[in-house]
Every structure is written in structure tokens, then in C-alpha cells.
Model the fold of this input.
Amino acid sequence: MRQVWRWATTVTGTMAMIVGMGLTQALPSFGTASELYGAGSLKELITLRDRLIQELETPPKNQPEPNFFNSLFTDPLEFEPNEILLQKLKTVEIQMLVEERAEDNWKQAIRLATQAQQVANPNDPSPQQRKQVQELWGKAINNLEEISPHSLLARQTSNKIKEYKFSLSEITDELLDARSKILEQIRKESGLTRQAMLTVCTIKRDCVNLRGNEPPASPASLIKVPVAIALLHKIGEEKISLEQKVLVVGGNFTEDASSIQARQSYSLKDLMGQMIDHSSNIATNQLIDYLGSDYINKYLESQGYKFTKVNFKLMGDHIMPWRPGTGRNRLTSNELTEMMVQIYNYEHPSSQVLIDALNRQYDRVIGYAGLQGLPKTQWLGEKTGQNSKVIGTTVAAQINGEKYIITAIDNNTANVPQISTSVHKIAEYIVENGQL
Done:
């Protein structure tokens, strides 16, 4: 059977190449068996393959009978297989692999969808139950999306994906609503006003919010976080050292609790650090001048922050800095939380420098205080903000072994204990329930 071994080796080599380059890439170059030969199912493909093998194993009828002379020079059992048949066999074998994988993915998707329907229990509307259902629908869709567009199942797969995505959308909306209700309950129990904004995210971006897209009356010193990430972008883009010295001009002076003084030079690292860990208004104003409000806002917009704007310098109780700017600073708890997620995901150049500054936060009466005493909870860093209109904080914490960002803002500057309590209750809920 040397002739069979020869064409089998050829097909096997082709199949190895196909597996290496990927079935989806290979099929267009070969053409699908269903398109070329009319096979409509895996069973028909198997029948077609067996017939092709049988034809390839059958020697040509006009092959000469072996005799003394030709046996000296040729193998009497050797013949060249029909190249057209070989090409057909290659195509059929590839299509069979596609269909086998497609059927496996299809069956797995149906199994997961059935499980999602069984788990969904109207008598248990908890976020945990809805989260489980959401994950099952997501896995079912992932399996369907693995099915090749060249598969015989492609058309019905497309319809099934639409059906499953509708179910996923429904349960996702229900889950978001249920989780928002938890935050609303925490808001009430904490004593925050009805205008309070709460956003909670894992650094994997599993997020929930209560009025997270509504702007507070003022960002206060929370606006220093977007200034910091814009600075990190600039130094990375322009290859600037954080050790570069910058002169703090006298016009940027205002009341300040940090060690930064006007008419002195400081490194960019020190200015950013003092802006974050001691909430230095002078350092912030100098960095706004260094970067330019236009640069900051264009960068923020390029990153998808549609609402956050840095338009005005920071001032203390009485002293307005020189050339303060025009327009109001603004942000939302959702966008601020996303900035913190980026920082703790190390998505910016020199993120660790900013993380270290957040960890040195001297104001520890809000988020830090709120997390004290909770099991399985570690405060990682924080930026607070307060003025005559607003009080807020954005906190990084590790809870149950996972990193979270918790942002709480209220349009009542006196609500420091209430903000701290809300952070405590959010973390406590995660500890007790495994997730929010």
C-alpha cells in the first residue's frame, strides 16, 4: 500500500499546515466542501471523504502489467494519485475539522444557555443570582462566536447569537438595576444626600454606580487626578524625566498646606507627589501651567472622558492665582473611578510613582478611616477633595483579594462622616457577599 501511504502523507502534511495557520484562514484559500461538492452535513462530508479515499486507493485501469523489464526500473505497485482527487480530499478533511469544532461549540453553547435558563429564578432576584446567569449567557455567546463563518452551522449560529445577546442584555440591565439599588440603600443608611454619587469598580472594570454620570457641584481637589494622568502621558510621550526641575512662579501662589513654595524649583515628581498626597494647590496650578489646559483637556477627550475638564486653577480660602483660567472644572464619579482603574492597572507611564503618592495621602479621615477594622480589607491609596460645595473621595482598596476603586461624592461639605460610612458599608457588603 505504498501509494496510499504517499497520498496520506501529503494530506497529513497539509492538515498540519492548516492547524498551524488556523482553520478560518485556510478555508478561503481551499474553498469549502459544501460550496465545491454540495455536502450539507458532517455525515455527508464523512461519506464524501470515504468515497474519495476509495477512489485514490484504486489503481488506474490502464496501468501496465508488471513484467521482467519494467520491474527492474519501477515499483509495480506505485502510481501517481489523481491530483484533483487529492485536492478534493484536502478540502473535505479541512471542512470536517471545521464542522467537528463547530458542533462541539454549538452543543456547549446550548448546554450553557439551558443552564442559564435553569439558574434564572424569579424568586431569587439577588445580584449574585443575576451575575451567575449573566456569566452563563456570556460563555454561551463566546462558544457560538468561536464557530467559523465557513461552517455549515454559520447561518443558524448568527441567529442564535442574536437571540442569546438579547437575553444577555436583559439580564445585564436587571443586574445593573439590582446593584444600583444596593448602592441606594447604602446611601440612605450612610446619611448621604439624595444627590450623592457613588461608583464602585474592580480593576477588571466590573462596575456599578449610583448617579455616576451626574456631575457634583464642584470637583474640588479631586480634579487633581486628571491633572496627574495628563502629566504621566506627557512625560511618556515626550520622553521627559520626572526629575526635571520646574520653577514655581509667584503668580501660582495660594493658600496651601504643603511644603511647596512659590519662586522655588521642584522636580515634576515632587510637584505631582505634593499635589496628590498633600493636595497642594500651588503644585497643581504650576502643573496646569506646565501642561496647559488645552493639552490636558484634549488628552482627556482622546481617552474617552467626555465630561471631565480642567479649566480653572485651584485657590485657597482667599487668594486667587494669576491667570486662573476660564470656565469651571468638572468631572463625574464614573470618569474619576475609571482614571483610578487605569492608574492601578499600570496603564500610564510611571504609574507606580502616582500609586506611591496616593498611598502617602495625609488626609486619612474619610476612606482610610472607613476601611479600618474590616476583615479581608486593605487600604491602598486615596485622593480626597473638599471645598465649600462638596466633599468626596476616591479610594483604592484590596477586598477579598481583589482590587477595587470606590468613589463617593456628596454636595454637602459637612458630610465627611457620611462619606466615610458609605465607603465602609460598600466594602463591608463586598466582604460579606463576595461581590457587589
In short: Residues 1-12, 15-21, 68-79 have pLDDT under 50 and may be disordered. The longest strand covers residues 377-386. Strands lie at 197-202, 207-210, 245-247, 265-267, 377-386, 391-399, 402-410.
